[in-house]
Amino acid sequence: DARVTQTPRHKVTEMGQEVTMRCQPILGHNTVFWYRQTMMQGLELLAYFRNRAPLDDSGMPKDRFSAEMPDATLATLKIQPSEPRDSAVYFCASGRGTGAGEQYFGPGTRLTVT
Amino acid sequence: AQSVTQLGSHVSVSEGALVLLRCNYSSSVPPYLFWYVQYPNQGLQLLLKYTTGATLVKGINGFEAEFKKSETSFHLTKPSAHMSDAAEYFCAVSWGTSYDKVIFGPGTSLSVIP
Q1: A with B: how many residue pairs have Cβ under 8 Å apart?
Q2: CB neighbour list of residue B21: distance below 8 Å, 6 or more residues apart
Q3: pLDDT recorded at residue B20
């Protein structure tokens, strides 16, 4: 049963520390998405990759966030330095890139910045 | 600009009663439409989708939705609610065969009363 995996599942860190979240998309999927979910803002798209190339990161605070795909099996989202307002659940999703829009979500990383 | 609205941030139904979750969209081109469900502490999973063809689409767990172009709606229904249906439901829209981005609505939390 193919699924998207994310690590860590939970992360508690102090303000100012670097946070790295990792995602393994489903094998064969060529699109990867990073979302942030909070009670106040709901589900926000942070970044979007197709064939490992970033296509849209307009939703991401550029001064502290960065997203990369070192290879087809790994996507990373990094926050440096972290702030309490970054506390949220971060989801990775992948898709086949056929244009039908169907995405498969990972279980999320719950980040708490104190 | 394309957008998705969901009427009612919270809906409560009695077990066995009809479930109706409302979704309206705005789009200048024919949309692809989706309903996703999120159970507590999990990622989103696809319930059903409309791309082309039959406007009444059936999904998992007994849910179905009807695309009504004249009303720009894609409401989700289930004839008889079950306790296990309690979750957050998101309507989403994307456009075109080369466009993978999905715009999610704000979500509707469904409670099922025994």
Answers
A1: 58
A2: B6, B8, B11, B35, B75, B76, B77, B89, B91, B108, B110
A3: 98
pLDDT, tens only, B91-104: 998 875 556 778 89
Q: Is A88 exposed, middle or buried (0-12, 13-18, 19+ CB in 10 A)?
A: buried
Say if residues A57 and A68 touch (Cβ distance below 8 Å). no
Total H helices, total E strands in chain A: 0, 11
**Closest CA relative to residue A11, chosen from A93, A81, A64, A87:** A87
A101 with B90: Cβ contact below 8 A: no
Which residues of chain B lie closer than 8 angstroms to A31, CB-CB? 100
How many whole angstroms separate alpha carbon B64 and alpha carbon B59?
6
Q: pLDDT tens digits for A45-62?
A: 999 999 999 988 888 988
